[in-house]
Amino acid sequence: MTSLDAGYAYFDARVRPRLLGERAQRLLMGLMLLVLLQMLLLPNPLLSELTGYAEPGGMPLLKVHFYSYTLLIALLFVVACVGLVRFVSEQAVKRPGVLQFAGVVALCAIVTIFRQGIGGVAYMVDTLFAAPLAVMLVFYLDEERRQRLTAFIIWFVTFNAVIGVVERVVSVHLFMLGDSANFEYFRATALMGHPLENAFITSSVMFLVVAMPWSAWRKFVVLSICMAGILAFGARSSFAVTIALGIAAALLFGARALLRGEMRLSTLAAAPWIALVSLAAFTALTFGTSLGERIVKLAKLDESAQARVNVFGLFDSLSTNDLLYGANLTKVGFTLETFNNVKIIENCWIAILLMLGAVLFVVFAVSLLGFFRSIARGRGAVAAFAVLSFLLVASTSNSISSKTPSLALFAIALVGIPLVGRRRPEAGEEGEAVRYAVSLREGVWS
After folding, report:
1. Helical H runs in 212-288?
2. How many CA atoms lie within 13 A of 18 on its CB side?
3. Could you count the other beta carbons within 10 Å of the beta carbon of residue 100?
4. Cβ atoms within 10 A of the Cβ of 301, count?
5. Tens of pLDDT along the chain (446 residues)?
6. Residue from 265, 223, 208 nearest 446 by CA
7. In this structure, are residues 205 and 154 in contact, taking their beta carbons and an 8 Å threshold?
8. How many Å apart are CA 243 and CA 380, to the nearest integer?
9. Distance between CA 407 and CA 390 in Å, rounded?
10. Which of 3, 49, 213, 356 is at a distance of 20 to 30 A from 386, taking alpha carbons?
11. Residues 298-307: contacts with CB under 8 Å, at least 24 apart
């Protein structure tokens, strides 16, 4: 029996994962904050100007983002504190979906190296592998510190949205990063370089705001600023998905609170007026100001939207072998050059499918869903809406099929929201059974 086998054999699944000591947690917290700052303040255009990060050629070590190196340092620190066997055992027992996704990403990287060389390894590390690695490390922090990381991401995204609104109002980019300012209509770029990346991250964390233990007014202000930021970034898909899922979530949570008797009579009476005022303010903001100019004028199937539909025609230009086992990147690039009105694949799932092939893509997709399920479990319907919003908005951009920290940022923010599920008594533990009763008369109408 190897030491790893012994670790699995003698690891009691009922034992809580061992948290680090206070000093070790402070150091790990500092490393994770440094990771977040590197993700948020060093976007691709800026890092490309400094080190040639996203440019062809150059030193291979500079093709990996700084936050990936910092995560590696944090991993070595945690393993040194708890031991390699215990670290792997805890991940396998407590968070198997996270460990499984990390393994699948590693498998995809190995297959990609054998097929196409080391060209796509940096993308695998920065975009895909960084997410499960960050989640593994964050779970060694206590709940309060995890919640601080989530709050830090939300407040930074809110501040970034404020910058985007200011840029859109004055029609001036405060931060000039590469060629990201060349658009037909003016679009804010703020701190993250590209409008779609800004809007994608903003819409992803909006649903997490609802789960934070903040006052209703603070949540309302943050959500309003983020929504105005999405308008300023001019992202139609993020705007539409956020609105549709936001309305669905509001109806679901409202109906559930009403049926369970958890809604006050004053809230029930004020809800229609709040909805009416919010709708009027939102309509005025969208149609009566410059923030929603691009979305209003391009609320149709224009060339950009048509290109997202035409990209499905790429499958007709590739062989069955390419579709099943992955197409050569050079061949895909050449096909795009000759394809009508499609310059870039704006659907990340299609891009990943062409890179991995249908066989490996199915494994990757199932593993990704397992990863989200593992970190969202116990965090309520809000987490489910957040994951759904992330997946839908990702389908309209290349944020996950290119080198970006979007997946890692969302995963870190998701694990920091409070748990909402009630813990059932363990075997032999005293406690009353959990009962749910519909209390309309006693709750709402009392």
Report:
1. 216-233, 236-259, 265-287
2. 15
3. 18
4. 10
5. 444 444 444 444 444 445 678 899 999 999 999 999 999 998 888 888 888 787 777 787 888 899 999 999 999 999 999 888 889 888 888 888 999 999 999 998 888 888 777 767 888 899 999 999 999 999 999 999 999 999 999 999 999 999 988 888 887 878 776 555 456 667 788 888 788 888 889 998 999 998 899 888 898 899 989 988 888 887 778 888 888 898 888 888 877 777 776 666 666 666 666 777 766 776 666 665 656 666 655 555 555 666 666 666 677 777 777 788 777 766 666 666 666 666 677 778 888 888 888 889 999 999 999 999 999 988 888 899 999 999 998 888 777 878 889 999 999 999 999 887 544 434 433 333 333 333 433 433 33
6. 265
7. yes
8. 20
9. 9
10. 356
11. 298/185, 298/236, 299/236, 303/341, 305/236, 306/341, 307/341, 307/342, 307/343, 307/346
Q: Compute CA distances 224 → 191, 195, 231, 286, 300, whole Å.
A: 19, 18, 11, 12, 25
Which amino acid does the sequence have at 4? L
**Ranges of each domain in the chain:** 94-249+264-418
Q: At what angle do helices 358-376 and 406-415 cross, to 10 degrees?
A: 30
Structure tokens at 396: 């309209």
- Cβ neighbors of 383 (< 8 A, separation 6 or more) are 207, 208, 211, 376, 414, 417
Closest to 312 in 3D by CA, of 365, 350, 360, 349: 350
Tokens (6 digits) for 54: 């996203």
DSSP calls for 336-349: HHHSTT-SS---HH
CA angle 344, 347, 352 (to 5 degrees): 95
Taking the C-alpha atoms of residue 261 and residue 272, their distance in angstroms, rounded to an integer, is: 18
Q: Give the C-alpha separation, 405 to 131, whole Å.
A: 8
* Prediction pTM value: 0.83
**What is the number of residues in the chain?**
446
**3-state secondary structure (DSSP) of residue 180:** coil
For residue 2 the two structure tokens come to: 């190897």
CA-based nearest residue to 115, from 275, 301, 300, 321: 321
**Alpha carbon distance 401, 405 (integer Å):** 11
Token pair recorded at residue 176: 């000039």
